[in-house]
Amino acid sequence: MYDFAYQKPASLADAVKALGADSEAKALAGGMTYIPVLKQRLAKPSTIVDLSGLGLTGITVTGGTVTIGAMTTHVAVANSAAVKAAIPALAALAGGIGDEAVRHRGTIGGSIANNDPAADYPAAALALGATIKTDRRSIKADDFFTGLFSTALEQGEIVTAVEFPVAAKAAYEKFRNPASRYAIVGVFVAQTSAGARVAVTGAGQGGVFRHTAMEAALAGNFSAAAIKGVTTSPADLNGDIHASSEYRAHLVGVIAGRAVAKAG
User: Fold this and answer.
1) Can you give the residue ranges of every domain in the chain?
2) What is the torsion angle, in degrees rounded to the nearest 10, for the CA atoms of residue 5, residue 11, residue 12 and residue 17?
3) In what order do the strands lie in the sheet with 209-210?
4) Strand ranges inside the chain, DSSP E
5) How far apart are CA 100 and CA 31, in angstroms?
6) Tens-place pLDDT, residues 72-94
7) pTM
8) Domain 5-50 classified CATH 3.30.43.10?
9) At what angle do helices 88-95 and 121-128 cross, to 10 degrees?
10) What top-level class would CATH report for the domain 59-263?
C-alpha cells in the first residue's frame, strides 16, 4: 500500500467534514473491494475515513418498506427474519454474496456506493425501485447508478441507508464465477406496484441495467414463458476470459427465466 492518513470519526457530521475537507480522502465501509485495491497500489488516497464508528446499522420494516442501514453487513441481511418475511429474495441475494468472510465484513452501503459491474445489490436496488438515502438527499435507484463504478454520489456524500419497497413477487438468480462468486450474469426480477422490473448485473459494459424488453413482456404475463423469446443484444455486454459477450447475452435469457419461475 501507499502511505495514507487514517481517521475513524464518531459521528456522521465529522465523517462528512473529513471527506469534504480533502478531495483525495476516501470513505471506507466494509473494505471488501477497496482494501484489495489499496494493497495492489491501484489507488493512492491521502486519507481513509473509516465509517464503521457511525452506527449506520440496523433493519426496519414499516409501511411496506424495508430500510437497511448502510453499514449493515451482508450476513445481517441474509439472516434477518424481517427481511426474509418482507422480501425473501433480498435475504437470499445477501446470503449468496462472496464467501462467509466477505459476508461478515462487507456492507450494503459499500456495495451500492462502489457499483461494481458484477455486484449483486445494485440489481436488487434497481429492480425493486429502491431509494438510496444519503447525508444530503434521497436518490432513486434509477438515477443513482450512472455507469461503471460510478454513481450519482457527490464528493464527500455518504450513503446512510437504503429503502426497498416490498414487491408482490421477486427473485434473484445468478450464474456466478466459481472462484470469486461474483455474478458473471445476475438477474433480479420483481413485480412491483409500478409494474414488472428486471435488472441485470455482471453483463453490461456500463454496469447494472434494466432490461426494458423483458419488463414489457412480463407486464401482462409474469411468467418465464412470457420472456422465452426475448433476446439480448451482445453489443453492449462485457466479454472476458470467463464469458464472451455473446455467451452473456444467452445467459441473460436463461437466468432471467429461472428468476421469474422462482418468483412466480
Assistant:
1) 5-50, 59-263
2) -50
3) 169-176, 183-192, 195-201, 209-210
4) 5-7, 25-28, 47-50, 59-62, 65-69, 131-134, 138-140, 145-147, 150-151, 159-165, 169-176, 183-192, 195-201, 209-210
5) 15
6) 999 999 999 999 999 999 999 99
7) 0.95
8) yes
9) 170
10) alpha beta
